[in-house]
């Protein structure tokens, strides 16, 4: 059975993908994370979940602390373990921060990935699933956005992900490295048992920030004058467990087909900020304090995915609703307020 290296496995999407692999496969897993944004508590929870599923506590999951910017760290992991493939999440992912500090994003996201890819080639590992983003598309020329939409990022985060996609094209041609790139739209939700979930510092995602609003902390809507059905931005929210399933299917597609491809991952429909806010109030069964401020620079009015390709080729489709995502996020929030 394959051994998969999961970079950024202590983070939000990486940890839920590992949970999916624990529960649905027999793959051996190496979690590689520098814990700068990921959390050792999340790693420990995954190790505990794994040990309960085994008749004995074996070494099916191994944690290796390291940084992709340090070539020795990643080289040591490949020397120690017989790795068959990679699922690559490790990256900085805050759009606003990337504008203020592009060097941090280019050095970490691009240089770190180059170290990973070069080490893979050196050790004859030729399969990688890459966590890309709809931010590579930039401002939409049309919606829903399909995989053929022009890629014109408007911030360094999006540029860094697009650069990696281009590098992977070149590595495929030169070295035969096959990659699946998953371009996600907005990700939401948590493990439905509340064991792992969304834990960012600072938190920038919409739903956790609505759930954290209270008498002291007010939720802010940025702009209510967009050309949309209620004046607020419309986005596509895919559940993190559905997204994790897409990563498993993408890896297995690489095993079977051994060819490079790209897929949008979303739900194929959009919800406005106000609709998400109203759904959160229904789940919480209480009013949430809110204030409206002006638009943020660079926020398109409407973004949602065309997911026809991933449905047809990977046989993947979203299974969970927006309210399912909110309920699981709230469960995790309540269980882990500390």
UniProtKB/TrEMBL annotation:
Keywords on this record? Carbohydrate metabolism, Isomerase, NAD
Q: Which reaction does it catalyse?
A: UDP-alpha-D-glucose = UDP-alpha-D-galactose
Q: Which cofactor does it need?
A: NAD(+)
Signal peptide positions on this chain? none
- Asked if the Swiss-Prot or TrEMBL record annotates the protein with the keyword NAD, the reply is yes
Q: Which Pfam families match?
A: GDP_Man_Dehyd
Pathway annotation: Carbohydrate metabolism; galactose metabolism
EC numbers listed for it are: 5.1.3.2
| One Gene Ontology MF term | UDP-glucose 4-epimerase activity
- Mind telling me which InterPro entries this protein's record contains? NAD(P)-bd_dom, NAD(P)-bd_dom_sf, UDP_G4E
Domain NAD(P)-binding spans what residues?
Answer: 5-327
Complex formation:
Homodimer.
PANTHER family reported in the protein's UniProt record = UDP-ARABINOSE 4-EPIMERASE 1, UDP-GLUCOSE 4-EPIMERASE
Family membership, please give it.
Belongs to the NAD(P)-dependent epimerase/dehydratase family.
What's this protein's name? UDP-glucose 4-epimerase
**Gene name on record?**
galE
């Amino acid at each position: 059975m394959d051994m998969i290296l999961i970079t950024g496995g202590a983070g939000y999407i990486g940890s839920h993908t590992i949970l999916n692999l624990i529960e649905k496969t027999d793959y051996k897993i190496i979690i590689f994370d520098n814990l700068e944004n990921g959390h050792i508590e999340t790693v420990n929870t995954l190790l505990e979940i794994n040990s309960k599923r085994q008749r004995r506590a074996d070494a099916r999951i191994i944690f290796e602390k390291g940084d992709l910017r340090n070539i020795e760290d990643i080289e040591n992991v490949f020397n120690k373990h017989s790795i068959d493939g990679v699922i690559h999440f490790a990256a900085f992912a805050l759009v606003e921060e990337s504008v203020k500090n592009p060097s941090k994003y280019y050095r970490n996201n691009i240089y770190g990935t180059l170290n990973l890819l070069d080490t893979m080639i050196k050790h004859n590992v030729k399969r990688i699933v890459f966590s890309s983003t709809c931010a590579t598309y930039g401002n939409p020329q049309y919606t829903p956005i399909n995989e053929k939409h022009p890629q014109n990022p408007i911030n360094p985060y999006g540029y860094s992900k697009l650069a990696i996609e281009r590098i992977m094209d070149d590595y495929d041609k030169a070295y035969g490295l096959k990659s699946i790139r998953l371009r996600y739209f907005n990700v939401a939700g948590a493990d439905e048992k509340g064991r792992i979930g969304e834990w960012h510092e600072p938190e920038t995602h919409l739903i956790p920030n609505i759930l954290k609003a209270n008498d002291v902390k007010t939720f802010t809507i940025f702009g209510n004058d967009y050309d949309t059905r209620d004046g607020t931005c419309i986005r596509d929210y895919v559940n993190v467990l559905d997204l994790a399933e897409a990563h498993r299917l993408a890896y297995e597609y690489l095993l079977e087909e051994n060819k490079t491809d790209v897929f949008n991952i979303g739900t194929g429909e959009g919800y406005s900020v106000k609709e998400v806010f109203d759904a959160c109030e229904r789940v919480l069964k209480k009013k949430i304090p809110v204030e409206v401020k002006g638009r943020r620079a660079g926020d398109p009015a409407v973004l949602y995915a065309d997911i026809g390709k991933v449905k047809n080729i990977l046989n993947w489709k979203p299974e969970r609703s927006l309210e399912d995502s909110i309920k699981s996020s709230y469960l995790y929030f309540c269980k882990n307020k500390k």
